[in-house]
C-alpha cells in the first residue's frame, strides 16, 4: 500500500511538498479575476490535490475559487482545454511548465 493510501486509511493528513508555492499561487487566484493564466493554474492545482490526504486549506480554497467564478470542475477543465489549444498560457514563465505532481 502506498504511503498516501496508508495515510487515508489511518486518517492522517500529509503536508504536500509543493504546499508553500501552491499557497502563493492560490492566494493570487483568489484575489484576482478568472484570467486564462488563473484558470489554467486553478485546473492544475485541482488535478494536483485531487485525492491528496491533507492540504485541506488548499482544497477548500480551490472550491471557493470555482464557486466565486461560478464554474464546475468540468466547466473549468473544458475552458482550460480550449485555452491550451489556442495559446501558450505559461509563455514567458518557462513554457515547459509540466508541474502536475
Walk me through the topology.
Elements: H1 3-10, H2 19-31, H3 36-49, H4 56-68, H5 73-86
Short synopsis of the structure:
The protein is mostly helical and 101 residues long.
Key structural traits:
mainly alpha, 101 residues, globular, single chain
How would you characterize the overall build of this protein?
The chain is mostly helical and 101 residues long. It has one domain. The chain contains five helices and no strands. It has helices spanning 3-10, 19-31, 36-49, 56-68, 73-86. Helix 2 (19-31) packs across helix 3 (36-49) and helix 3 packs antiparallel against helix 4 (56-68). The longest helix is centred in the middle third of the chain and has 14 residues, at 36-49. The model has no long low-confidence stretch (mean pLDDT 85).
SSE ordering: HHHHH
**Into which percent range does the helicity of residues fall?**
55-70%
Q: How many helices?
A: 5
Low-confidence stretches: none
How widely separated are the two ends? 19 Å
Strand percentage lies at: under 5%
Computed structural class: mainly alpha
Overall geometry comes to globular
Give the tally of structural domains: 1
Q: Tell me the major beta sheet.
A: none
Structure summary, number of beta strands: 0
Mean of all residue-level pLDDT scores? 85
Please give the radius of gyration in angstroms.
14 Å
Amino acid at each position: 500500500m502506498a504511503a498516501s493510501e496508508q495515510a487515508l486509511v489511518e486518517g492522517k493528513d500529509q503536508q504536500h511538498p509543493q504546499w508553500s508555492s501552491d499557497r502563493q499561487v492560490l492566494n493570487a487566484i483568489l484575489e484576482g479575476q478568472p484570467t486564462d493564466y488563473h484558470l489554467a493554474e486553478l485546473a492544475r492545482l485541482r488535478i494536483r490535490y485531487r485525492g491528496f490526504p491533507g492540504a485541506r486549506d488548499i482544497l477548500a480554497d480551490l472550491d471557493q475559487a470555482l464557486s466565486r467564478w461560478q464554474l464546475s470542475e468540468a466547466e473549468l477543465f473544458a475552458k482550460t482545454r480550449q485555452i491550451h489549444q489556442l495559446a501558450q498560457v505559461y509563455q514567458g514563465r518557462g513554457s515547459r511548465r509540466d508541474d502536475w505532481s
